[in-house]
Structures are given as C-alpha cells and as structure tokens.
Amino acid sequence: MQPNTRRTFRFYWKHVKKFKFLTVLLVIVLLGATAAGLIAPYFYKVLFDLIVDQGPRNEIVNTLLGVIAVIFGFHFLEWLFWRIAVYGSIKLQSKVMGNIANECFEQLQNRSYKFFTNNFTGSLVKRVNRMVRSFESIADNIYYELIPLALKVIVIFTVLFVIKPPLGIVMIVWTFLFLFFNLLFSRYKWKYDIAKAKADTKVTAQLADTITNSITIKLFAGLKYEIDKFAEIIDNWVRKTRKSWNLDELARAIQHFAIIALEFIVFFIAINYWAKGELTAGDFIWIQAYLISLFEKIWGFGRIMRNVFRDLADAEEMTVILNTKLEIEDKKDTKKLSIVRGKIEFEKVRFAYDKNAKVINSLSLKIKSGEKVALVGPSGGGKSTVTKLILRFFDIQKGKILIDGQNIKSVTQDSLRSQISLVPQDPILFHRTLLENIRYGRRDATDKEVFTAAKLAKCHDFIMKTPKKYNTYVGERGIKLSGGERQRVAIARAILANSPILILDEATSSLDSESEMLIQEALLNLMKNKTTLVIAHRLSTIMKMDRIIVFQDGEIAEQGTHADLISNSSGLYKKFWDLQSGGYVN
Fold first, then answer.
1. pTM of the full predicted structure?
2. Which terminal CB of the chain, N or C, has fewer other CB atoms within 10 Å?
3. Which whole number is the average pLDDT over 488-493?
4. pLDDT band with cut points at 50, 70 and 90 for residue 37
5. Domain check: are 8 and 122 in the same one?
6. Residue 585 pLDDT exceeds 70
C-alpha cells in the first residue's frame, strides 16, 4: 500500500476504535452467522445420503424430518445473527460517519486564508462527502464480504481436505492464485481510479465556478466558451472513467473463466472418486453447496478489492488535506489574548505571499490605544495585507506583531479574532436569516440587542419591509440583498460584537450617498473607545482620522493628519488628493 492508503485506513480506524466493544461484538455475531451458514450444508449431505442409501422410506421419514429441523434451526440462527449484525453495523457506521464528517469539517475550517483562496468550494465539499461515503463502502466490503470470506475459505479448505486431500490442494492453489491476481490487479488499477477521482473533482469544481459566475458568463457572452471548456473537462472524465470500467470488465472476464475451470477440475476429480465408491451422493451435494457458497464470495473478491481501492482513491484527496500541516496553527502553550487597551505594534515586520513577491518590507508601526488610523495608498501597496496580518490570516516571515504587548503568534487564533471586528468591502453572509447573520457578531445576544444594532447600522427599516422581517433568509452569500444592504448588515454585526479593535475595509463603498450619510454617525459611534483601522480609497471619508498612513510598495511613504499631509505639496497624499475624482484613489 502507498503511504496515503495506510493513512486513510489509520484515519478510519481512529474513529472505529472509539466503539471497540460494539465492533468486537459485531464481528463475533457476523462469524456466528457465517458459521451457521456453513454447518447447514453438512446436514444436506446427511439428508441425501439417507434418501439414497437407506431402506424403506416409511422407516426413515422421522429421521429425515429431524434432519430438516436441524437444517431449519441453523438457517434460523444464520438469519437471526445476520439481522443483529446488520442493525449493529447500521448503528456503528452511522456514528463513525458522523464523527468523520465532523473532523473533516473542523480540519477544513482550521485551514488558512490562503488554503481557501487556492481551492474551489465545490471541490472541497465533494472531498468531504467522498471521504465519508468511502468509509461506508469500505466498511461494508470488509464487514459483509471479506470477514465472511476468510471464515468460509478456512472451513471449506478444511472440509475438502477431510473428504479428499487432492480436492483441498486444488482449492488452496486455485484460491491463492485467484486472490493474488485480484490483489495485484486491483493495486495496478488503483492509479486509474485516482485519475478518475481527480477528473471527477475537476468536473465538480468547474460546475461550481461557472454556476457562481453565471451572471458574468451572460454579461460577457461567454456561454459558448464555457460550454466548450466544460466539454473538454467532461471528455477527460469520460476517458478516465472508460479506462477504469474497461479494466473492471477485463478482470471479471478472467475471473469468470477461472471459476468455470475450477468447477470442471473439482467435479472431474470428484467423479473419479465416486466411481471408486469413495464419495457418496451426499458428498457431491456437500461439495457443490460449498463451491456455490465459495464462488459467491470469491467471485466478488476482485470486485471488492477494486471497490476498496476505488474508495481509497476517492478518499485520497481529503486524506492529503488531513495529513497536510496547518499553515497557521496555535502552539501548545498558547494563551487567550487579553486586551485592556488595544495598542497595536509592528516591529520590523517582513512578509511576502511567496519568495518572489515581497509585500511588507521591514515595517515598524505603532497604533495607540483608541487611535483612529486610516490606511491609504495605491492598490498593491500593502494596506489590506496589514489588516490580514493583524488578524493572522498569514504568518509573517520576520519581526513581531503585538497587541497590548502580546505577540499574536503566542495567543489562540479564536481569542485574537474574537476581539477584532472586521467590516469588509464585500461582506459575505450565511444563507441564514437576517437575525442569525447579525447575531453572528455575538451569538449570545438577545433579540433586543440585535434590533438595537440593526437600528444603529441603519438596516432596521429595510429589514422590516421584507416579507418575514428578521426571519428572512438572505440567500447564498447574501445574494438576495443589495450590496449596500449586505454592508449595513455587516456593520450591524460589528456593532453587536463591540470588539475593542475595529477594522473597516471600504465599509461604505457599496452605499449610495444618502445611505452613507445615514451610516456615518453609526460608524463614528461604533469607533468610540476603539482602536480603529480604516482602509479607504475615498479620501473624503477619512479626513477626521487621528492619523493617516500612506503605503507604497509595502512601506510607509508618509503619515500624519489630513491637514499635515495636504500641506505637503510634494507628498504622495497630496498627489492622490489632487488626482482624485469623486473621492477615490485608483
């Protein structure tokens, strides 16, 4: 097995062994069901030997009825054990699948900001679903197929050796070759299953991407282009799928021929022994019953192994994620961030998204407690990166970022972010009610507190005009709301959170002039007694800030109040102010 295959099994076993008692009990019950099914054919032998070899029929009727009762008893036990095995398996698998889904969800949510920018939402959803479903399929194949097969092979080999050693030898050699071929073939086919799974993920990712951007496709008349591109991806999936299926059919053809050959060889040997009087008619029935039972299981062995490897291939992509080290991770000795004042310090911070793209170069910056600071500059200058670093969406390469003297690498991420409210330029909302979206800022808030925050954010009025008011669902990513409405909901969420540090990233950019005027007072109230960073292109919105910092090429080009900067005729801020059209720096 490849390392990731072993890791997949280890991951599944980690969750299964939480239910050790139930697992062991189910295996015992399953073995009991299989054993009962294997004992019954022996009494068919006894039955037919009595019918063929004994005297007058009326003298053996009671004996025959007794044998039939025994056969019924074993079949009843087999039925009973199987029912217990199945219901127990349902309980075990559902619990384990739930735990697997929970861990996958937690693992994904712990991934970094960069991880989500590099992966399609649809493909991540599919990976989690396939990981869960793969466990179900693998568990079914091992529990219902491989464990009974192992017991049947042992018992049948033993019986055939007892009846006639040559029959046992033929069965052992044939079974070993059959299983070895299927194992090798399944392992060989695994790489094609992985290729098929990856092609399937690409199809899902392309679907998710184009559905999300359906409006863009219409606006730019891109339907023909997207149809051709999707057809190309589907064609790749078709080729990979056809290859996998063709290999499956080749394996089935070889297996079928091998079973026909075995049955011919076994009966050829058995007939020779019968001719010598060394086998009875009942022995033939017994052997045939065992062969049918064995063929039923062993015929599926190749399919089972291919299915197991296919399921492992389906789980492979999620296994890779689960075994990839977290980019942003809390240390074992981290403590919760304790903010008293909200002072922020950058000490010679250097950061780059990759080795060839430096963004922040030896930045030293102090933001006093309660200070209102605006970050301006051309696109790509580093101002948005500064806020992402404060939130620890990325780890810096050199230097320190301190909040009230505490290195943000030494505190838990949750405690850090719970004390920073961010109102982004393009807020994303959950497909939940307006009440739930606003309350997400402080999930223990009362309805009254939510309504108060909504009124301060000037979104209460438009909410009350919706059909179900605060119980109105906003659609995926908040699509049912306008850009300005989404932004006001995000501001209400920040007001409710009442965090000591506030970041406004173009928080009024989607508002019309009237809405912006209404909300400016709410924002000023929100910023009271808070350390505030405001990213703005529209300079008219930051004139009253305590300090304005101008970024260029990852460094501070100049800083000061609006009056100080505007008076510097050769400064970058003055240039932006003069060039600004409608209050924006482009």
1. 0.66
2. C
3. 86
4. confident
5. yes
6. no
Task: Mark which of 280, 299, 322 sits at the end of a domain.
Answer: 322
340 torsion bin: left (phi>0), alpha (psi -120 to 50), beta (else): alpha
CA distances from 295 to 112, 290, 304, 454, 581 (A): 51, 8, 13, 69, 81
Distance in angstroms (rounded) separating the CA atoms of residues 497 and 421: 7
109 and 213 assigned to the same domain: yes
Number of independent structural domains in the chain = 2
For a pLDDT cut of 70, what percent of the chain falls above it?
Answer: 87
Tokens of 400: 């320190």
What domain range is 365 assigned to?
Answer: 335-419+501-508+530-586
Q: Are residues 392 and 284 in the same domain?
A: no
Q: DSSP letter for 55, please.
A: S
User: How confident is the model at residue 197, as a pLDDT?
Assistant: 77
Mean pLDDT of 363-378: 87
Q: What is the pLDDT of residue 583?
A: 44
3-class secondary structure, 293: helix
DSSP string over 308-348: HHHHHHHHHHHHHHHTSPPSS---TT-B----SS--EEEEE
What is the C-alpha to C-alpha distance for residues 500 and 320, in angstroms, rounded to an integer? Answer: 38
Kind plus residue range of the DSSP H or E element containing 359: strand 357-367
Q: Which helix (H) or strand (E) holds 246?
A: helix 223-275
114: left (phi over 0), alpha (psi -120 to 50) or beta: alpha
Mean model confidence pLDDT for the chain: 79
Q: Rounded to an integer, what distance in angstroms lies between the CA atom of residue 27 and that of residue 453?
A: 57
Which residue carries 């033929």 as its tokens? 170
